[in-house]
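W.,

You were right to be curious about this one. When I first looked at the sequence I had no strong expectations either way, so I just let the prediction run and decided to look at it fresh. Below is the sequence, 249 residues in total, followed by the output.
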Amino acid sequence: MVKAMKTRWLVLFSCPLLLYNSLTMADTELKFATQEFAPFSYTIGSRISGPVVEIIKKVCDINKFKCSFKVLPWSRATRYVEVGLMNGLFVIGWSQERAQWLYFSPALVRTEYGVFVQKDNPLNYHKASDLKDYTVGVYGPSNTANALEALKRQNNQIKIDMNPHDEFPFKKLSVGRVDAVYSNKDAGLALIYKLGLNNIRYAGRDKTLDYHIGFSKRLTPKPVVDQFNRTLATLYQAGYIQGHLPNTP
C-alpha cells in the first residue's frame, strides 16, 4: 500500500504541465471548507491554521491561485462542496460514494481509527468483540461513525452514542457516561490535550486510513485539480509535504 501511494505521487510528478496561460492561473479562485480538526486544521483566534492549511496555501502561492478558507460544521462543509458552493474540502477519506461528486488529491497523511477508554480500564483493543456490552461515543454523522457502525454489524452488543460535536464523546468518557470513544487517533489525542482530560488513554487501532483534499466536480474544472495535484507531487518530491505531515504515505 505504501509503495503504491508513493508510486502515485511519482506518476503525478512526472506528468507534463497543463498548457494553462499565466492569466488563467492568476484568475483561478478556490474556496476551501474545513472543520475544527486538530492537528490537521484548526483556528487560532480568527485565523485558520494547521499543516494541511499551510500545504494548500503553498500550492496556491506557486500557481497564483486565489485561495480562501472557511471553517464550518462538517455536515455544512461537505454540503457546500457537494452542491458546488465551494471548491475544496479537507481533510477527507476516500469512499466510492464521495468519488461520485469529488475529485481527490493524492493521500496527504496516513492515520487511523481506534478506541479510547479511561486509564483504569485494562482494555487493549484488537477486535469488535472486545467492545461487547460497551456504550461507545462517536462524533457523527461522519465517516468515523460509519466505521463504528461497521463494527456494530460484527458485534451487535455494541451500543453507539452519536454526538453532534467531536468534543462531547471525550467529555462523556471522562466522567463515565460512555465506556469508550471511537475516533481518529490523532484528532482524539489533540482533543484530550485541548480539553485537559488526564484520565483517558488510547486502547488500540481498529483500521488505518488515508486523508485527502477533495474538490467539487460540480464547481472545479478538472484541469485546475490536475494542476493542483501536480504541484502537490512536486512538493512531495522536494520533501515539503513530509516535513509538514510526517505520516504521509
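Here's what jumped out at me. The mean pLDDT is 90. And, maybe more interesting for your project: The chain is about 35% helix and 30% strand.

Coffee later to discuss?

I.
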